[in-house]
Specification:
Keywords: ATP-binding, Nucleotide-binding. The chain is of the alpha/beta class. Helices cover 39% and strands 15% of the residues.
């Protein structure tokens, strides 16, 4: 555990030296009524609190279990607003680090903020899991358009997205996609993301990416984001894996921080629920 924490601290200290400067992307201002109509047109996701808790999604309501994610939310939003950033990717070194759980908890935590609007898109197309985690199977036609069609401009966000409350929209994956890296290299993606931002005017877009070290999917998409958060699993992620992730990602975008997941301790710097704790390090520029 000490070596893993040292690696996280090293990655945090190195971010100022290696992170690429990311320019904020201006979005044309729109009257709020225009975006309100687009948000209200999205079908509302029907989420079951009992299922969410069973799947470790604990931020739909405020409480002690949600506190670590609320802290992560506050620091993430503050830092991104200071930098003028809006697009955040979340990845992990390898599978089973809990990146999708962290992403969804962060998204639902943001949704509790009355002044914030966020869009979360599941980009782990090889192994989509969010429909299962959220209990969304059957709430849309599984044979209809999905995230791949959205990214390439063959479907609109309204065709694939859900709304949860007034301020969170979700686009989750359907079936696994074998050619995910080809889709993520498609030149139409940039225009698609710009169109979504213009139509919905979110303060933040979150992208649940594939594990970095198992394919080139995540690296293919980094040109479209302002920053990235790495989720490492205690007793699973190695020092070497964290170092490699930090170096590779910092060559393409700004590394916002490292979240230590599945840690069996809690200190003044870490909050936790059950056997999970979360640590966060601001990127220094």
């Amino acid at each position: 555990m000490e070596r893993l924490q040292a690696a996280i601290n090293k990655a945090r200290n190195n971010q100022g030296e290696t992170a690429r400067t990311t320019r904020a992307r201006p979005v044309p201002a729109q009257p709020r009524d225009d975006t309100s109509e687009a948000w209200e047109a999205l079908p509302e996701a029907q989420l079951t609190p009992k299922l969410l808790r069973r799947n470790r999604i604990v931020t739909s309501e405020a409480g002690p279990e949600a506190t670590p994610f609320d802290m992560l939310r506050t620091r993430t939003l503050r830092h991104m607003q200071e930098q003028g950033w809006r697009r955040l990717a979340i990845t992990s070194p390898t599978p089973a680090c809990g990146k999708s759980t962290v992403t969804l908890n962060l998204a639902l935590s943001i949704a509790r903020q009355s002044a914030a609007k966020a869009i979360e898109i599941e980009m782990d197309m090889r192994r989509p899991s969010q429909n299962q985690l959220l209990g969304l199977r059957g709430q849309r036609d599984q044979n209809g358009p999905g995230v791949p069609e959205l990214l390439t401009g063959d479907a609109n966000f309204a065709d694939v997205g859900f709304r949860y409350g007034p301020g969170l929209a979700l686009a989750t994956g359907n079936a696994p996609v074998a050619n995910a890296s080809d889709i993520l290299l498609d030149d139409r993606i940039g225009q698609t993301l710009d169109s979504i931002e213009q139509a919905y005017q979110p303060q933040l877009m979150l992208f649940d990416m594939s594990p970095l070290l198992v394919s080139d999917d995540t690296m293919a998409f980094m040109r479209h984001v302002d920053c990235v958060l790495i989720v490492a699993a205690a007793e699973r992620s190695s020092v070497t894996e964290i170092d490699r992730c930090e170096r590779e990602l910092a060559s393409q975008t700004s590394v916002l921080g490292v979240v230590l997941n599945k840690s069996r301790f809690s200190t003044s710097e870490y909050g936790g629920y059950g056997d999970y704790s979360y640590g966060y390090g601001d990127a220094k520029r």
